[in-house]
Design a protein that fits this description.
It is a single chain. The chain is mainly beta. It has one domain (about 5-120): Elongation Factor Tu (Ef-tu), domain 3. The protein contains one helix and eight strands; from the N terminus they run βββββαβββ. It has one helix at about 60-75, and strands at about 5, 15-20, 25-30, 40-45, 50-60, 80-85, 90-105, 110-120. Strands 1-6-7-8-5-2 form a six-stranded antiparallel sheet. Strands 3-4 form a two-stranded antiparallel ribbon. The longest helix is centred in the middle third of the chain and has 17 residues, at about 60-75. About 15% of the residues are buried.
């Protein structure tokens, strides 16, 4: 099973993995009150962030840039979609908020580019 974002298999050209960001409560502080007692403010549950890291792989530079352009289009679209990993785990209401390309394109029999993608649940 491949991974998809809104039924688009944008990243199945190469290996990739998913991880979930920090979970729990979002707190601020500790602060010190007027009576010198410390306190912390609880702002509720953290937003769900899913991080994907991997490589885009293509036969040549032109094909690699076609993959990058497709990902860029999704990252700029601000659409909420369902993100599904290769094991069938699905996160609904996710938005692709960041595509960070690696610092170089690796060349061999194929060309590839490391990347990191962040999705945020809205």
């Amino acid at each position: 099973m491949g991974s998809t974002f809104g039924s688009l298999a944008l990243f199945d050209s190469g290996p990739h993995r998913f991880t979930v960001g920090r979970l729990g409560r979002l707190t601020r502080g500790p602060y010190v009150g007027s009576n010198q007692n410390p306190y912390t403010v609880d702002n509720g549950t953290r937003e769900l962030i899913v991080i994907q890291m991997g490589r885009l792989v293509a036969a040549d530079d032109a094909a690699l840039w076609t993959l990058i352009d497709a990902v860029q289009s999704e990252a700029e679209a601000a659409m909420q979609r369902t993100l599904t990993d290769h094991h069938g785990r699905a996160w609904t209401g996710m938005r692709m908020i960041l595509f960070q390309a690696g610092d170089r394109i690796d060349r061999g029999r194929e060309v590839s580019l490391a990347y990191e993608v962040r999705y945020l649940e809205f």
